[in-house]
Amino acid sequence: MAARITYLRNEQLRTVKPEYAGNKLFGNQFANGEELYTPSFSNVFRWKFLTENPQKEEKKADTWTPAVVSCTEFLQSQEDGLVWLGHATFVLRTSGKTLLFDPLLFDSTFLKRRHALPCRPEELTGIDWLLLSHGHRDHLDDKSIRLLARQNPNMQVLSSLRMAPLLRGMAPQLQVQEAGWWQQYDLGPEAPLGIYYLPAAHWHRRGLNDLNQVLWGSFLLRTQDKLIYFAADSAYAGHFEEIERQFGPIDICLVGIGAYKPAFMMQLSHTNPHEAAKAANVLRAGHVVPMHHGTFDLSDEPASEPIRTIEEIAAGGMLRGELHAPAVGEVMHWPEWE
């Protein structure tokens, strides 16, 4: 029997894409646009037990890690800036407001950091908005959420449809605003920026029985004079063109470049460096900041390959925007970027 098709959005929020009915549900599962994506266990088995990594020795010998500098001084200041904390975690400050993206601040059984955090987790205070793109454990971490909720009692969480029950199981006091794709969060009349939840080509699972039951997506921030796009986890797909059509050229694009090998396992979840460059070019991004590489060992490519490749792409003139490859913890003064 075919699954019942319905559409869901937050009726309390503004939908910015004309005639968009909401996110499509096949029964109880969200979809990538019109198509339901179900990750295959057979691919995981094939990867882990049946496939020999052709770069096994190269990966073993590649001990590169990103440089790390302290960002404590920035966190204690009020200056505008952007700081990469590793993987997909960023701190952004604009007009006196501090935003934190997809925080993963601690090691866990399956996720061990390859480099130090550029600050103590206890220094992440004064967070106004916590942006959570989706529910995978390398983007939504229980321990990090509990700590941030304790340290930031007035923090508001901006996330996706059906995320609130999951988050309140970690920290019941959290203020959570859920959005569907193409919706604008309600930040109040005095907010110095606008924030939109936008599509991504990905999926959700944290347990055995919750496949695709919580939505995934990306974020767009409209500051006084710039558009900043956080691509989150996504395969390359048509949503990049749709976003450019809806909003025009992006000023700053934060895009994933790692966790792409083997392709049969990763290509429907993440962008490789060439796909990341293509996405940034389609978005007509003026500046590109790579992420989702170097911090955790999630895939088969050698550690330094993603950043080497995106730098080669940029040096070869195949990246429209200016590439910024910061050290972990380095303050990027994005308001000064032309």
Automatic annotation (TrEMBL):
What's the short name of a Pfam family annotated to this entry? Lactamase_B_2
InterPro entries assigned to the protein according to its UniProt record, in alphabetical order? Metallo-B-lactamas (IPR001279), NAPE-PLD (IPR024884), RibonucZ/Hydroxyglut_hydro (IPR036866)
Q: Where is the Metallo-beta-lactamase domain?
A: 99-293
Q: What is this protein called?
A: MBL fold metallo-hydrolase
Q: What organism, scientifically named, is this protein from?
A: Hymenobacter lucidus
